[in-house]
Amino acid sequence: MSSFIDEFLVKSVLGRNVDLNSSESVIEHCISKAYDDMMTVGRFYKLQGKSERCEEIKKCFEKSKYCFSVELIEQVAALFIKEKLDNRKSYVTTFGLAQKVVNMTFKYLYCFHDFIQLDIDFTKCDCPIDSIVLNQMKSDKLLKSARSSYVWSKLTDTTYDELQKALDNQTGNAPDGLPPCSPRLRYDFNVW
Questions:
Q1: Which pTM was predicted?
Q2: How many CA atoms lie within 13 A of 164 on its CB side?
Q3: 69-107 burial string, b = 16+ CB within 10 Å, else e?
Q4: Which of the four pLDDT bands, split at 50, 70 and 90, describes residue 75?
């Protein structure tokens, strides 16, 4: 593919304002894109402005040295305000929101690894859990518990761990031209 097409595709996902010569800009846009993905349900929270929230999330990533962990998800979860905009929308959990934004950020960093100056170990990353992944896990009969209906926005650390462990035995290779990644992250690419 030509560099013109590569640049077009990257900017189509991350936005036209991303500076592909700046690792910092690409990272910030990856976090912002993941935040937008999470907001499909997170909009029911009284959240600070997007740029301030993304900056807080970025600080959590920097503190973790861009190393995936459940602790990173918990740190990001602590950033979300408990007060809801609408009491009828009480189905959202801070852990569910945080896992989505953390895992999607790692997914975008993985996709755009050529534009960042970080050495991230993607073999430790988890699968971003959303409704599409949950439906596929159900179709693949990976949900072993009696409760086979999960909602990503209702995930607790326990149900999250159960779902991730169900993906550990998935096989396959990393997408062509990309660094090695975990079976959990690879499952997400296969589903999408």
A1: 0.86
A2: 19
A3: ebebbbbbbebbeeeeeeeeeeebbbbbbbbbbbbbbbb
A4: very high
